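Researcher: Structure for this, please.
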Amino acid sequence: MSLHDLQIAVHVAKDKVNEFGGYRYRTAEGILSAIKAALPEGATIIVSDTLQELAGQIFVTATATVRFADGMEHSAQGHAMHPLTKKGMDPAQITGTSSSYARKYALSGLMALDDGSVDPDARKEDYQPDHSAHVDRLKACDTLAELAHVWKELGRELQCLPEILKAKDARKAELQAEAEHDKAVKDDLGGDGINY
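Model: Predicted structure, token format:
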């Protein structure tokens, strides 16, 4: 098994929810568990931490290394600032939190996990392209001629999409109803639209 194969085999959903921030996330433990489950026979995963000072700040640097049975090794690093104090936490908790954060990013980098914005595991439904701009353009047409022009510009690929077709048909019906109403008013007023 190569690193590439391992990266393809490891899927880690953002299965935790931060109630305060309202976002989903994954943990270092969850990533490590998924890697261990996918490792081939004879392969190992090692994660280690070091502390370093940079520009007067202390950082935890985590290194995640996968070693295959053939001796090939691949590593990635993750970094997290280590504050000296944090309200409500003792020093060991601060170090543990910084270490966990750095390890999560080292493991994510090693396995090429993305941020979840396009992660299929982070989605609750299949990806659907956003056609709202096209729908809005159709809804904004003021005349049947303008609607026909916008429809033609969209092209066949977009014209066959149900949401686009529905928006066009709805706006066409509205414009036709408005035209019929205007004609009826004009006829009632003697044909020229001026009420004598």
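Researcher: Any notable elements?
Model: The longest helix spans residues 162-188. Residues 132-188 form one domain.
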